[in-house]
Amino acid sequence: MDILNTPSASNWLNKVPEVTFSFWVIKIMSTTVGETGADFLAVNAGFGQIATCTVTGALLAVALFMQLRTPRYTPWIYWLMVVLVSVVGTQITDLLTDGLGVSLYVSTSAFAVALAAIFVVWFWVERSFSIHEIFTRRRELFYWSAILCTFALGTAAGDLATEALGLGFTWGAVSFGTLIAITYAVFRLGGNAVLTFWIGYVLTRPFGAALGDLLTQAKTYGGLGMGAMWTSALFLTVIVMLVAVAQFSIGRRMNAQAAE
Questions:
Q1: 127: left (phi over 0), alpha (psi -120 to 50) or beta
Q2: Which range of residues forms the domain containing residue 54?
Q3: CB 211, CB 173: distance < 8 Å
Q4: Assign residue 136 a region: left if phi > 0, alpha if psi is -120 to 50, beta otherwise?
């Protein structure tokens, strides 16, 4: 969904990337890393949910500080934020479900209401929740609040579909992938760009989570048995490569503009 066809001047001011195919590839991989990374730190590395959430939450706070301080879109800072938000969002849902025994039906509904409330307040204050012009501190805070909520909602919805409703990892990935394809088709047929973007953003979270579980879980549980560590490392490597290309491209464009 390439919905950020704004003038170059606006792009330089905007603090978020253009929504291209590469954007969605990195986003889906980030969601998968959030699922597999959180599981690896909490379970395989033995840190536990509370310690993992505390450490990654602190790292997220540092990344948010850097994101708010940078004057324009900086790929490595932005995508570091997304990866950390993905891990923290996963941990919030897991903590509610596994630690406090909150039903996935309840957490999914609660996060959906919370996300709707963020959008209502965002629109009431800014008169728009478009991502075309995220260049003020307040808009950034609305944006990242919504992003965090989409990750928590996506995790809860994904677990609800694959576990509580019994779809399993394969059919969960297929189901959410189909919904993403339908959302894209609606966009291409003239659907509202902002609405389809946020729907797609929410859906890519459970899709990435189901994909992560499919790759990491043991074959006896319906997965492919790759393990959380290797899956996280593989996807992180691809993310780093794509973000490096984006960072290089931004630098080259800035140099070319300065030379004019």
A1: left
A2: 15-254
A3: yes
A4: beta
Q: Does residue 221 lie within any of the structural domains?
A: yes
Those residues whose C-beta lies under 8 Å from the C-beta of residue 37, and which sit 6 or more positions away, are 83, 86, 87, 228, 232, 236
Per-residue pLDDT for 65 more than 90? yes
**Domain membership flag for residue 26:** yes
Domain count across the chain: 1
pLDDT, tens digit, for every residue of 210-260?
Answer: 887 788 777 776 677 777 778 788 888 999 999 999 888 887 776 666 555
3's CB contacts (< 8 A; 6+ apart) are: 19, 131, 187, 193, 194, 196, 197
pTM of the model: 0.85
pLDDT over 90 at 117, yes or no: yes
Decide if 8 is inside a domain. no
Residue 74 scores a pLDDT above 60: yes
pLDDT value of position 9: 39
Residue 2 lies in a domain: no
Could you give the CA distance from residue 184 to residue 193 in angstroms, rounded to a whole number?
10
